[in-house]
Specification:
Helix content: 25-40%
CATH superfamily: Aldolase class I
Largest sheet: 8 strands, parallel, barrel
Strand order of the largest sheet: 1-2-3-4-5-8-9-10
CATH topology: TIM Barrel
Bound molecules: erythose-4-phosphate, phosphoenolpyruvate
Distance between the termini: 82 Å
Number of helices: 10
Order of helices and strands: HHEHEHEHEHEHEEEHEHEH
Number of domains: 1
């Protein structure tokens, strides 16, 4: 069909475009391979069992708020892999490898967007660095997690992930719910930034359904994608504008809201963000409270999240950067992270022993 419509010349401010590799091209350059692929499948199955309550260990998503330096990220991952083997009777550690950052207004958007940290936005390199780094972390034996922010970016690394988050700013988005519906891994939906958990409950339901939606295929062509529905999702309590929501009353309220909605009561507590009042040093206290609730019998608590880096605090982009310090939200330093996780594991061990002794006495 011909049209008389003439297309106006693009104004000077019109956005320009630059080609990026397709998912298939990036995967060909940085393949997963059968060994790592089996490892991811095993990690996903373990996390699924934890989320479902069939494995009573606590899942811990821990690592930098964002990754901006692959050397520091791997240094962190090596320490985490060593710690993981010391606590794996109680805790399953999953590394936060966040390469995309949702911003409240504007700011650095993550390694994926601006890997050189200078506003040059070399996204082709960002894609390569991000996939390559996640693969390195996986080589160390750690499960990898990230926040899936841009649906088009997800396919570049979703095969490497054992767990993913949909953030507080996107949980209400239909497009993100469709994305999750097509992922074969456990995913946490955060409560909204205002603290409301209703949107996360709606998201869990929407993502469990099959969908047909717009997307791109592995070769970069527009495609109608069909998803089967993801049953392995859960709520993440991250606090909100009115304060934290990790206390026993809030967790109980959340559990009842999930049950009322006919959804499984599976909860992760994010010890950071509004639950720590954005003070990273408060995270161990939040974690300790979650452990206390678990020991008191709150079995909907299946997982926690911590923002942690080699060094504590945060620094601004612009000044000469200090090694191992976050350039987004403040993080707990490594020593305090290690101490908090060792203590959590020890308290859970003690709780199990006490429960075993009690059941022996009753029998
Ligand atoms: O965890 C990260 C931040 O809280 C989130 O990306 C929002 O950051 P901003 O409010 O600094 O933009
Ligand atoms: C942005 C994050 O969290 P939230 O969506 O809870 O703000 C995050 O975990 O990095």
């Amino acid at each position: 069909m011909t049209s008389n419509l003439s297309i106006p010349a693009a104004p000077a401010s019109e956005r320009s475009s630059l080609p990026l590799p397709s998912v298939a091209e990036l995967k060909a350059r940085l393949p997963l391979g059968p060994t790592l692929s089996r490892r991811v499948a095993t990690q996903r199955a373990t996390l699924r069992r934890i989320i479902e309550g069939r494995d009573s260990r606590l899942m811990v998503v821990v690592g930098p708020c964002s990754i901006h330096d692959d050397r520091a990220a791997l240094d962190y991952a090596e320490r985490l892999a060593d710690l993981a083997s010391r606590v794996d009777d109680q805790l399953v550690l999953v590394m936060r490898a966040y390469v995309e950052k949702p911003r409240t207004t504007v700011g650095w958007k993550g390694l994926l967007y601006d890997p050189h940290l200078d506003g040059s936005d070399d996204m082709a390199t960002g894609l390569h660095f991000s996939r390559s780094l996640m693969r390195e972390i996986l080589h160390l034996g750690l499960p990898v997690s990230t926040e899936l922010l841009h649906p088009m970016a997800a396919g570049y690394f979703s095969d490497l992930l054992a767990w993913a988050a949909i953030g507080a700013r996107t949980t209400e988005s239909q497009i993100h719910r469709e994305l999750v519906s097509g992922l074969a891994l456990p995913v946490g939906f955060k409560n909204a930034t205002d603290g409301g958990i209703g949107v996360a409950c709606d998201a869990i339901r929407a993502a469990s359904h099959p969908h047909r939606h717009f997307g791109i295929d592995c070769d970069g062509h527009p495609a109608m994608l069909t998803s089967e529905g993801n049953p392995d999702t859960h709520l993440v309590l991250r606090g909100g504008r009115n304060g934290p929501n990790y206390d026993a009353q809030s967790v109980n309220d959340a559990r009842m809201a999930l049950e009322r909605a006919g959804l499984p009561a599976r909860i992760m507590v994010d010890c950071s963000h509004a639950n720590s009042g954005k003070d990273p040093l408060r995270q161990p206290a939040v974690l300790a409270e979650v452990i206390a609730q678990r020991l008191a019998g709150e079995d909907s608590l299946r997982a926690v999240m911590l923002e942690s880096h080699l060094e504590s605090g945060a620094q601004s982009l612009g000044a000469p950067l200090r090694y191992g310090v976050s350039i987004t939200d403040g993080c707990l330093g490594w020593d305090a992270t290690e101490a908090a996780l060792l203590e959590a594991a020890e308290r859970l061990r003690g709780g199990r022993l006490a429960a075993k002794a009690e059941s022996l006495m009753l029998s």
